[in-house]
Specification:
Strand 1, helix 2 and strand 2 form a beta-alpha-beta unit. This protein is of the alpha/beta class. It is built from 11 helices and 11 strands. Helix 2 runs antiparallel to helix 10 and helix 6 packs across helix 11. It folds into 2 domains: 186 residues, 3-Layer(aba) Sandwich (D-Maltodextrin-Binding Protein, domain 2), CATH 3.40.190.150; 116 residues, D-Maltodextrin-Binding Protein, domain 2 (3-Layer(aba) Sandwich). The protein starts with 5 loop residues before the first helix and ends in a 5-residue tail after the last helix.
Length: 332
């Protein structure tokens, strides 16, 4: 196995430092009373229902509505990189009635596409980082490997003859696997799909052999045996998948990034509304049923201030640019 370059190690170090910052910035503000305007709130989710972000929103929707005293509707707009849904979000009025959840793909798109209909920093108002989720390596159960170390050995023995899938060019699944291959000094073919659902169909059907995905996206398939887990990105084993060893346990560099998710609004949302919605998010994600549902999905709740969210997203754009360049992910 080759040693990763200083550039890649430095980029990974910055990412781990950002995750540590997020883990220690949970706000302790007491929930404020929320006005009951009677106006419904639309929450844009730029991924399909099978994605990990979809489960998070499903878990908190009703609690968020109770906290706000308003009806909360979920507008799912799946598409490659979340671009379609996020574009619809940023075109909306900054009045507090249209919000959106974004994930890691939000900051990776500038490193994958030459032209975008939005700016991932300038066109949003960050409200809060909500938390993070471990990434898990999975394979089709017909592939003769039981863990990540065996997977890399298999790829080394069959250079360029096996494939891995992603939910699209420049997605977290693409960058994670490309970074892992780069660090290990092995090769595999990338097959991009249009979204997580089609990628999982291709993986289960045998069109591709491997993938790196959010744990919440594949838990059901792991339980039924439709997919096999090979390793998880977290420092310790995850309670939601206790039998899956970490990459570190297998003596491998933990180059897989943990996914994250954030609550945002269109650019120009008034500071008072940002504060109100941040406090509402704190209250909604503290509801016991939501805490339990998030834990069952393997997610960790880490509610941050709007300021920390803004700084985190800006820094992630820079970190992913470094990783995308090092991993050879070109612009489309």
């Amino acid at each position: 196995m080759t040693t990763s370059s200083p550039t890649l190690r430095a980029a990974m170090g910055r990412r781990r430092a950002l995750q540590a910052l997020l883990a220690t910035t949970c706000s302790t503000l007491a929930p404020a009373p929320f006005a009951q305007t009677g106006h419904s709130v639309r929450v844009v989710v730029p991924v399909g229902a099978a994605a990990g972000l979809g489960g998070i929103v499903g878990a908190v929707q009703h609690a968020f509505a109770r906290v706000l005293g308003q009806t909360v509707t979920v507008d799912r707009q799946s598409g490659v990189g979340g671009i379609d849904g996020t574009s619809a979000l940023v075109r909306s009025a900054p009045d507090g009635f249209t919000l959106g959840f974004v994930a890691s793909s939000h900051v990776m798109c500038p490193n994958a596409y030459r032209t975008l209909p939005l700016d991932p920093i300038k066109d949003i108002t960050p409200i809060a980082m909500i938390g993070n989720t471990p990434t898990v390596l999975v394979c089709n159960p017909n592939v003769p490997t039981s863990d990540a170390a065996e997977m890399l050995a298999l790829l080394k023995a069959r250079p360029g003859r096996m494939s891995y899938g992603s939910s699209g060019h420049g997605s977290l699944a693409h960058l994670d696997f490309a970074s892992l291959l780069d660090e290990a000094g092995v090769k595999a073919n990338h097959v991009p799909f249009e979204g997580i659902e089609s990628m999982l169909d291709g993986l289960i059907g045998g069109r591709v052999a491997f993938a790196a995905v959010a744990l919440a996206s594949v838990q059901g398939h792991l339980k039924t045996g439709a997919l096999r887990a090979l390793g998880v990105s977290s420092a310790q084993r995850v309670a939601a998948a206790p039998d899956t060893p970490t990459m570190l346990e297998q003596g491998l560099p933990c180059s897989l990034a943990e996914g994250w998710f954030a609550l945002v609004a269109p650019r120009g949302l008034a500071p008072a509304e940002v504060k109100r919605l941040n406090e509402a998010a704190q209250s909604a994600f503290a509801v016991p049923e939501v805490v339990q549902a998030m834990a069952e999905q393997g997610n960790r709740i880490r509610i941050s201030s709007p300021q920390v969210a803004a700084a985190f997203i800006r820094a992630e754009v820079v970190s992913y640019a470094t990783l995308a360049k090092k991993s050879g992910i070109g612009l489309l």
